[in-house]
Design a protein that fits this description.
- With 261 residues, the chain is an alpha/beta fold.
- The chain contains eight helices and ten strands.
C-alpha cells in the first residue's frame, strides 16, 4: 500500500485531483468512483478548478456512487445521489447521463444491489475509486465484520455511524436512515486504483490499523492491503498513529516526479 503524508486536507485534495486529471488525460471516458462526506470536498474543488482552467477535459468522464441511503425520498438533499450531483457532476460540467448509482428507493432493494454490481461490470469497471475511512475503520458502509468478499448489498448502519452522519441532517439522528446500499468490499477491490483520503486526528487510530495492522474484518479498510494499486493519502494529524510515518515520507519524497500516485 502506498502511503502519502501531506501537510493538510487542501494538499491532499490537490494531489488526488491531479491523479484524477492525469487519468482523464490518458482515458477521457474513465469511470470515477466517488465518495461523499466532508473529507473529499477538497478533491472535487481542486478537480473542478482544473476543469475551469482548461488543464483537463472532463466532458467524457463518467461517475459512479459508492453507496446510497435506503428510503430517502427522491430528490432529498442528503441522498447521496443529490450530494454527488451537487458536489461533483454539476461543478465538473458533466451530463447527468454520465452518472451511475444504486436505487435506494427501489421496491426490491436486494435486486437493485445485484443490478448495480452488474452495471459497474458492464461499464468496464471502475478506473479510480475514492474512499474515506470511518473512525471504526469502515469503508463505504462496510461496517466492522463485513465480509472481505462482499458484493453490493443492503447494510444496517451502526449507532456510531448514524451519530457521525447526524451533522448532515441538522444534527438530528432521528432523521438519519437506518439502512444503506453499499458497494461491498469485494466490489470495491475490483476498481483498478483505490485512493483513500483521511484527515484529522479522529481518524489516526483507524488509519494505523488499516495500514499497519493485520488484515481483519474488524477493520474493513485493512482490505486495501490486498489491492495491487492502493494509495492512502493522510494529513499529519491522521498519520499520527503510523509507526512507519518517517519511512512513508522518505519513500514518497524519493519517487520520480512523473510517477504520480
Amino acid at each position: 500500500m502506498e502511503v502519502v503524508i501531506v501537510p493538510d486536507s487542501a494538499a491532499g485534495g490537490e494531489l488526488i485531483a491531479e491523479a484524477m486529471a492525469d487519468l482523464l488525460r490518458r482515458k477521457p471516458d474513465a469511470l470515477l468512483g466517488v465518495a461523499t462526506g466532508s473529507t473529499p470536498l477538497p478533491i472535487y474543488q481542486a478537480l473542478a478548478a482544473k476543469v475551469a482552467n482548461k488543464e483537463v477535459d472532463a466532458s467524457r468522464a463518467r461517475v459512479c456512487q459508492l453507496d446510497e441511503y435506503v428510503g430517502l425520498p427522491a430528490g432529498h438533499p442528503e441522498s447521496y445521489r443529490s450530494v454527488v450531483l451537487r458536489e461533483v457532476v454539476e461543478p465538473l460540467g458533466l451530463d447527468q447521463d454520465s452518472f451511475m448509482g444504486p436505487d435506494g428507493s427501489a421496491e426490491d432493494v436486494a435486486a437493485a444491489c445485484v443490478a448495480y454490481d452488474r452495471a459497474l461490470a458492464e461499464a468496464g469497471g471502475v478506473d479510480l475509486q475514492l474512499l474515506g475511512i470511518g473512525t471504526d475503520g469502515h469503508i463505504g458502509f462496510n461496517e466492522p465484520c463485513s465480509s472481505l468478499a462482499s458484493r453490493t448489498r443492503i447494510k444496517t448502519l451502526t449507532q456510531q455511524t448514524r451519530v457521525d452522519n447526524a451533522r448532515f441532517f441538522e444534527g438530528d439522528i432521528e432523521q438519519v436512515p437506518h439502512h444503506v446500499i453499499t458497494q461491498g468490499i469485494g466490489t470495491i477491490l475490483e476498481a483498478r486504483h483505490l485512493v483513500l483520503l483521511a484527515t484529522g486526528e479522529a481518524k489516526a487510530d483507524a488509519v494505523a490499523l488499516a495500514v499497519e495492522g493485520p488484515l481483519s474484518a474488524l477493520v474493513p479498510a485493512s482490505a486495501l492491503q490486498l489491492h495491487p494499486h492502493a494509495t492512502v493519502v493522510v494529513d499529519e494529524a491522521a498519520a499520527a498513529g503510523l509507526k512507519l510515518a518517517d519511512y512513508f515520507r522518505a519513500t514518497y519524497a524519493a519517487k520520480p516526479d512523473w510517477q504520480g500516485i
